[in-house]
Amino acid sequence: MTQPSLDVIAIGNAIIDVIANCDDAAIEELGLARGGMTLIDADQAHGLYAAMGPAREISGGSAANTLAGLAALGARCGFVGQVAQDQLGEVFTHDIRAAGIEFPVPARAGDPPTGRCLIFVTPDGQRTMNTFLGASHYLPAEALDEAVIADAAVLYLEGYLWDPEEPRAAMRKAIAAARKAGRKIAFTPSESFVIDRHRADFLSLIDAGEIDVLFCNEHEMAALTGIADFEAGIAMLAPKIPVLVVTRSQDGAVAVAGGVRSQVAAEPVDKVVDTTGAGDLFAAGFLFGHVRGMTVSDCLRLGAICASEIISHYGARPEEDLKAFVAERMG
Known about the structure:
UDP-N-acetylmuramoyl-L-alanine:D-glutamate ligase; 12 helices
């Protein structure tokens, strides 16, 4: 097997996050699913944007956020996703390339526009996300360069992109290319509602041994296994996956690798400002340690530290020097 030139290549939604503060009453008045993620159409996106207060526009997308964290830690990364030929597409392209991440997919002409996620943040830091996926759902399989996929140590996939036929075909093509090259595949189902739609597909990937590292939170694990009890869910899922990582918000995270269980407490923060991207940056820290051959315990600690940086400010991209931030806390 040849030495890969990239540590991680990811396939995911190319989205701009539009983030605004609001009170709890606004969430109820707008009929939003507090703390969750809801897919919306273009008309709904326009309506919610008009209802938002002053907002910040920051590049996002789950897998892209994870790559931003990885790149900030010093990993070599590539991204496969679709933007449109519009202003937000230019912003996304600039931001991801400025982070040192390879992004070779050309922008798409015409409608729909670049995807955006309208995020309402309540005073407790909880985020309510409303996502218009736009151009990101038109990523064709031919946009994939199989040689580039094969040249990364880890292929990372986000479940959010499993819904539409074109990106799903692209991800299946990428899985085959990574497997043929002997590379590892990491996967996150992204959200419980995604699992509700594609549970059979995801379980099939797991049962076929296509997933080497699975990231999920405890609610997603319950949706995937059909088991509400946390320990019973771990017991069912862990034997099927080489590395299972389950986050539990303020209760830290658990990983099971080769039958050995490790866990980590959540890192303390002075104030939780915005939980957007916490899971994405946890995955970044864990994967960085994983590709560097660190112990599972150290990978978990890295993930927890990276997540703590993200929840201390608005947006899902690191603002601190993440490498220095981690080095100081790892000791």
